[in-house]
Amino acid sequence: MLKILTFLGTSEYCESTVCIKDFKKKHRIFPVVLAEYYRRTCPEKRLKMIFFLTAESKNHKNWKEYTEPYLKSSNICYEVEEISAEDTETLTAKQMMELIKKMLKFVDKEDKIVLDTTHSFRSISITAVVISLYLKEATNTDVEIFYGMYNADEKTTKGVDLTPIMKIAEWLHAARVFKEYGYSKFLGELV
């Protein structure tokens, strides 16, 4: 199953033309378009979206008016997991682990996971790579990271695939294993 793990806040999101590779659609909520993109490019996979929302964002128009009605009318399967605002503003190591545990509840082995950080708190975006690496290693899933980069002047949002950043972490791990144990297999696989 393909699962999009995403967040939604209470900022003012303007309608824009969202471009993900060669796919374009007008909407104000990036993860909605991301779901449509994957429905088109991976029609053989069942799709489910998991929204991590604070109590405030769950009752905000971004969810109530722009997102939930669209998901229902488009028959996009979704779930909502409530998170506290204090879990998201400045993540401590303990809070990061709690968020990872909440995410893991929705991840099954062999899932394809797309972590969308567009409408999340900055601390979530920064830790997305760590979360993705953990999900990849702990559950043997294929993980991608996306960010919708909004351009107010052009009223466009470009879907940026941040997944290659995970490769850097793999290189760091391989270098550490080689340095500490002289084991070069991981480095060899990356070359």
Which secondary structure elements does this structure contain, and how are they paired or packed?
Blueprint: E1 2-7, E2 16-20, E3 23-27, H1 30-41, E4 47-53, H2 55-58, H3 61-64, H4 68-73, E5 77-82, H5 93-104, E6 112-116, H6 122-139, E7 142-151, E8 156-161, H7 164-181, H8 185-190
Parallel strand pairs: 1-4, 1-6, 2-8, 4-5, 6-7
Antiparallel strand pairs: 2-3, 7-8
Describe this entry's structure for a reader.
This protein has 8 helices and 8 strands; from the N terminus they run βββαβαααβαβαββαα. It has one domain: SSO1389-like (Rossmann fold), CATH 3.40.50.10640. A hairpin with a 2-residue loop joins strand 2 and strand 3. It is α/β, with parallel strands linked by helices. The protein is 42% helix and 26% strand.
The CATH level-2 architecture is identified as: 3-Layer(aba) Sandwich
Task: Point out poorly predicted stretches.
Answer: none
Q: What percentage of the residues does DSSP assign to strands (E)?
A: 25-35%
Structural class based on helices, strands and sheet pairing:
alpha/beta
Brief rundown of the structure:
This protein has 191 residues and is α/β, with parallel strands linked by helices.
Descriptive key words:
single chain, 191 residues, alpha/beta, Rossmann fold, 8-stranded mixed sheet, 8 strands, 42% helix
